[in-house]
Every structure is written in C-alpha cells, then in structure tokens.
Amino acid sequence: MGAPKQPLTPLAMAILELLHERPMHPYEMTQIMRYRRVDYRVKLRPGSLYHTVERLDGQGLIEVVDTQRQGRRPERTVYGMTEHGRDVFTAQVHQMVATPADEYPEFPVALSALGELTPEEAVEQLKMRVMNLRARLAADQVVIEQVTADNLPPMYWIDYAYSHHQRKSELDFTQQLIEDLESGRMPWPDESGHHLAIVKDEKNDKTG
Length: 208
Known about the structure:
Number of strands: 2
Oligomer: single chain
Radius of gyration: 24 Å
C-alpha cells in the first residue's frame, strides 16, 4: 500500500474531496456529486466511481469504516479517508494548483481543421457553437444565482465559477471569429495557396 504510481484521476480527487467532509458509501458520493454539478467537470458514471473507490482502497488512501443496511436493500460499504490518503491528496492539490497542466480539449483540434470546411460550413457550425455556449451559460447562471441566494461560500463553488468564466471567454472568442470570417478580416485560404505553402516548406527542408 504505497503511494500511487500515477497521479490521481479527477474522479479520484473528487472522491477524496468528499471524504474530507465525512465517511460515505459510493452511492451517496454519486448523488452528492450530481447535486453539486461535479459531473460537469468530472466524468461520472456509477461503474467507474465504484472501480475508483476499490482502487483507492487498494492503495490505502481510503478504508472501510462501516457497513449499512436499510430494509431489504443490499448492504452498503462506508469508506473514510486514511492519513496517507490525506497526505497524497494534499500533495496533488499543491501540484495541480501551482503547475499548469498539458490538457487536450477538442475545440483547438477542431479549429486547426476549420480550413478544411467551406467558409459557409465553418460559419454555420461556429454559430451553432455560439447557441450551445449561450445555453450552457444560461444554465450556469441559474446555478450561480441559486448558490448565491443560499449564501453558499464562493470557495465551495469556485470550480464552477472558473468553468463559467472559461465558457464566457470561449463565447467571446467564437463570436469574434465569426465576425472576422464574415467581414473578410480573416481571409479564407484557397486550395492553391495551401498547396503552395506546403511546397515551399518542403523546398526549405531540402535546402536547409
């Protein structure tokens, strides 16, 4: 039961974060994560959560502290965090906060391939993204207004505020990109120009 060989996954971090509050069984963890919208930033599936709990238990980061049974329901195992788990969790939080991670979101990949579409297709899909972003931002705002009305301390939903800010920035960028494409400020590459650039690069490689 040593330290994990690989950094803890986002789901593992979310589980350990919950267990800072009190011991819980996996079903309760799932319900609280969904209520708090943790599934907006962590892939949350019941099967993967149970598997992650078992792995954390095997690593000595959490341990069984109780079992519960209600009526005819199956027995539920309650887990608590170990001291080793607290140490590993704290060390990873330090690293994650201080060091920007290399992350690989889909949108930059799509933007790099945008020139392979027609200008009309590109603008149409970007406008669809704007609609989807506005819908997500509106849903965000409902949640933010609710937690504000409930006087929930901002530190408890700072991750949600960060995601909301990211979506606003992405919306601004996407709207500006659409304007630049429609106005011609960002010219669309033609096929011949694209191939000329490739030939030029190949020539430089041979003579460099």
